[in-house]
What does this fold into?
Amino acid sequence: MDYATLLQVLASTLRLATPLLLACLAGLYSERSGIFDIGLEGKMLMAAMASGAIAAMTGSAWIGLAAGIGASLLLAALHGVASITFRGNQLISGVALNFVASGATVLIAQALFQQGGRTPPLTGAARFEPLALPFVDTLKGVPLFGPFYAQVLSGHSILVYLALAAVPASWWLLYRTRFGLRLRAVGENPESVDTAGVSVIRLRYTAVALTGVLCGVAGAYMATALQAGFGREMTAGRGYIALAALIFAKWRPWSALWATLLFGFLQALALRPDVIEGTLHMKIPVSFLDALPYILTVIVLAGFVGRAIPPRAGGEPYVKER
Amino acid sequence: MTKLPTWADLVLVPLISLVLAAAISALVILGIGGDPVEAVKVMVDGALGSPYGWGYTLYYTTSFIFTGLGVTVAYHAGQFNIGGEGQAQLGGLGVALVCLALPWPHWTLALPAAMVGAALFGAAWAAVPAWLQAKRGSHIVITTIMFNYIAAALIVYLLVEVLRPAGQMDPATPRFPKGAALPGFHEIPGLSLIFTSKVPANVTFFVALLACVGVWLLLWRTRLGYEIRAFGKSNSAARYAGISPVKVILLSMLISGGLSGLMAINNVMGEAGRLLQNSAEGAGFIGIAVALMGRNHPLGVFLAAFLFGFLYQGGAEMGLWTSIPIELRLLVQGLVILFTGALDTMVRMMIAPFFRPRRKEAA
It folds into this structure.
């Protein structure tokens, strides 16, 4: 593989890792607060449909983004009501909402546009356009780094940089603020948080809302930046890959970045079978690359390569003592 | 909270959940400019209005019984098996390998062999998540989700690279020999008087009914069933009583995977006659809704499977004859899972006031 091809694959890695990273950080907040969420997929799908539809109607990607976040928040609120207020089974609620999203997105898109469950193709300001980072031209002459800066780091939509910025921001929020300390505590030992006079319910709802916002951005990115419009089942299991990445990252923000970049790299490779064949001089089935994130996650879950220990109170509804 | 009488818990709660799911679906149909009454009419007519419709409804029912029973057995052991979809796909692989291995002379010989293949492959696909849960404490929900995706990738690979006959374009196995074809309802003496045209419902339906009885016997009439239920109710109490957690988790998941795998004799052997991509078509996931709706009892599973069979066939007809997309099925499925599985406390709270006064009198 020559340097130019490597840069192409890396650029596409960053593009494909972005929705995974956003969804992974989304899951991080929810699960760190003790609410399991396998509904990341459904929230992304709902957001993708809403942002695609609204961006097509208004011609503004930003209004589309807001609509996507709104739609995702709606599902997050349902998950919150089911799992926090009514203390229902969080896993079942997540599974249910994924099906609701699969069905509702197509129904709504079809009712709005009559295009077989798709939204119309987006053009111009209805999409997030690629941004050129500063000094691209100045650095062009620098060997190795110049092309890397121009082709891999520069030229993505603003949501990609937003996702990358969300990593240090999440780290700071979780480990350097009072809110973060409480959030982590409520996922490990909600009784202690309750004893300290902080509302477990409110903290968990806040976490679930943060999950909704980030999944909303992830879905909007899918429909208005990565692709031009919503198509049925367009998230194609990315919510589950994000969940896998979250386990891979052991519920930590910086590790989430590396895990999603790795999984994004695998997705980028799966799109370029010629590159793999040229580099390894053997044929690797695309299905194997598709399955690799899941296989790696199972290995990590099995505890053979460093143990993944979830937040201790995860999945347990909190019953306040009287 | 008021404890509801058993009948209310078993009958009223699922019924109200169903009514809520139907009501929301009706609102959605209104919202997208459809007519809910017309939709229900088309569904009932398409699914139950003709022998042809019944033939499809019972065909779907058969698949959902198997996957629903699969979820049920695991559920009683406290394991939430979301891997039914992957296990059913692997079951299909088992069926295909058995059917293609020999030039089967008659279906009565092919069926038992294919059932063994289906159950073994389905169970094998559940074995790794089960072992990881029992021995290493890896969360079974996550591992079974991962195994669904791994199964899909594996089947695609095998169909494209290995099992596809030379010169064939679509990724599928060759057709099974004639002797491995299961008789449909239109070919069974007696039933053929009603089902005059070709329908996909086949003898597997009766195997599914036997499986219901078998699961009931297993759970409530055997030592293993007792151990499974005891472990599901309280891990620590069961462990204290000398029940091995590893054994219960492994066996319940193997049976669960085997039952999900058995679904493949209905769709792969009974209907398609060859293994195709995505053969389970989501039936593994519907098993979750069926088990929750059926309150994890074989009789309930049977009734819920029939309900979803109706929903699937009726939904397909609705997609064909009205402007409402077929995806409404997914919405209803999600809502049923939501209300019966996650919001059941809410439903109980809704009906609890009606049961309070009587308790006061009794006390």
In short: The mean pLDDT of chain B is 91. Chain B has one domain: 51-322. Chain B touches chain A through 49 residues (CB under 8 Å).
